[in-house]
Amino acid sequence: MCGIIGYVGTRQATPILIGGLRKLEYRGYDSAGVSVVDNNGASRVVRCRGKLAALEEKLAKEPAPGTQGIGHTRWATHGKPSDENSHPHKVGAVSGSTTFDS
Which residues contact 91 (CB under 8 A, 6 or more apart)? Predict the structure, then answer.
């Protein structure tokens, strides 16, 4: 089962998104990721296969700063669990600071 959480505000989004995804952990999933938009409108997607702790480790090395974003957990119903098949997906440029591709 998948779970999605979003945040738009004045605080850094990534810790809030991770906290929300942590509350969804009981649902079972094989990968997780975040997409965060910074103050310049640039988006950063960080995602990986495995449990939420693996995503947190990756974010420690590859921060995703910004005050709006989404977090997404995935249960593989199509395709094998992998970093490339993890959500959220992004195709092309994100236009505007409140539009997300997932």
Answer: 101
pLDDT on residue 102: 42
Report the half-sphere exposure of 74 (CA within 13 A, side-chain side): 24
* Structure confidence at residue 78 (pLDDT): 61
Check pLDDT > 60 for residue 86.
no
Helix and strand counts by DSSP (H, E) for the chain: 2, 4
Q: pLDDT value at position 75? A: 73
The residues, any chain, with a CB within 8 Å of residue 87's CB and separated by 6 or more, are 2, 31, 32, 33, 47, 72, 73, 74, 102
Q: How far apart are CA 28 and CA 10, in angstroms?
A: 30
Note if the pTM is more than 0.85.
no
Query: How many other CB atoms are there within 10 angstroms of residue 48's CB atom?
Result: 20
Residues in the chain: 102
